[in-house]
Specification:
Length: about 150
């Protein structure tokens, strides 16, 4: 019982909040001199879908600051066809060849567990990161969640 309680606490700490991540992304991007526009909101999304998309916002905004020379960035949260929650992050600062770093690979794996996906696209200096998660995605149990599974049993 104690181990189950510890896992529940740790899983709760590792949940990300979409609204907080969008506010943090806006602040980070603006601090880096990137004009930022956020469209949509997280209201009404299931908590585990919000959490998954919050990780996308965090990673996407971090990548804009670290790997681009963007002047502008738009983060758009939307419901698509009443079936999918979608986050689209577009920036205008691609420099060089975009890489497939471990951050996007990790996000792809996390979203795949929920039946979701990540797509990227480059068009000139524009880069788009799009993540989708079904609104009816199954919630990951603590035992099957990647972060909880790494905890050792005494």
């Amino acid at each position: 019982d104690s181990l189950r309680e510890v896992r529940a606490v740790v899983a709760g700490y590792r949940q990300a909040d979409l609204g907080a991540e969008m506010a943090g992304a806006r602040s980070m991007l603006r601090s880096a001199g990137v004009r930022t526009r956020i469209i949509g909101e997280d209201a009404g999304l299931p908590p585990h879908v919000q959490s998954a998309l919050a990780w996308v916002v965090r990673e996407g905004a971090t990548n804009v600051v670290r790997h681009s020379s963007a002047d502008t960035c738009t983060i758009d949260v939307a419901i698509v066809e009443n079936e999918l929650a979608q986050v689209t992050i577009v920036n205008d600062g691609v420099t060089g060849s975009p890489s497939t770093g471990s951050g996007l690979v990790g996000l792809s794996e996390r979203l795949a567990q929920l039946g979701g996906s990540i797509d990227t696209e480059r068009d000139g200096d524009m880069f788009t990161l799009r993540a989708r998660v079904p609104l009816d995605a199954p919630s990951l149990s603590r035992e099957s969640a990647p972060d909880a599974a790494t905890m050792e049993t005494p």
